[in-house]
Amino acid sequence: MECYGCKTCLAKVDHLCFYHKSEREVHLIFRPECRYALDKTMTVQEPAKKKAKVICRSCNIGVASELPFGPSSTPFVGFAADSVVVLATPLGKKQKWAEMCRHEPFRRIEVRTDDTFFGPKASTASVPPSETDSFASGQVPETVVMNPKMDVRLAAQLEEFSWHGLTDTLPRPYQIEAFVECLARDLLVIFPTGCGKTLVAALLLARMARLNPNRMGLFIVDRVPLVFQQGAAISMETQLKVCRVCGENKTKATMRELKES
Fold first, then answer.
1. Which of 37, 62, 116, 203 is spaced 20 to 30 A from 239 at the CA atom?
2. Same-domain check for residues 33 and 73
3. What's the CA gap between 231 and 253, in Å, rounded?
4. In this structure, are 133 and 251 located in the same domain?
5. pTM of this prediction?
6. Where do the DEAD/DEAH-box helicase domain residues begin and end (predicted)?
7. Cα dihedral 112/117/119/125 (nearest 10)
8. Distance between start and end Cα atoms, the chain
9. What residues have CB less than 8 Å from 123, skipping those under 6 apart?
10. Residues 117-129: pLDDT tens digits?
11. What is the pLDDT of residue 127?
12. Quick check: 10 and 102 in contact, CB under 8 A?
């Protein structure tokens, strides 16, 4: 895919997909798992309200927008049909992806919906019997994805690795795998934007709260807006009592709420 203005290569076609939000609303977007590649050729400007402009680094012309309209308000980068050249086929302003995606050469591009927005579901991996001998059940539930190399004996009971009952949201296989491995060892989780790092953190906080009911969990962010955004997300995903503290609201009432929690 090239920039319509300067013909700079912006992305590989393998990094793109058509997101069918509805029958009439179709976006050409960066695959969520390939979001990291965007920063090599494009820049996401500061969002104006809910929409952020994405520009080509070579010519500073707008080629896309970052919109928070994916599943569960997940942001995605959608390309304007008349701002990019895909598969050597330039399009005009009146041509829409909803129509063009049905024709060649665009039919070669993967199609995703809300159910497949984050890609095909990964197959679950079972743990060899030798890894589960210490557990009463002797088997790992199919809903839990574990790395066979991980020492799951760090938990006294298999239930400690279960995410069930911690949230009403159904985690995706890679989120479950990250959650399980974070329980077993210190781990830095890196997902592309919008792929659910906060849910993994929320699951960990909820599990740690059950294992240590008299202790407090700490979620640190680097910007004030994220204090309220992530606090709201954790409150929504779990039944934890969340106290949001930052320089903007560090009052006696907030400190009292923090002590009471």
1. 116
2. yes
3. 17
4. yes
5. 0.51
6. 172-259
7. -140
8. 51
9. 173
10. 877 643 333 333 3
11. 33
12. no
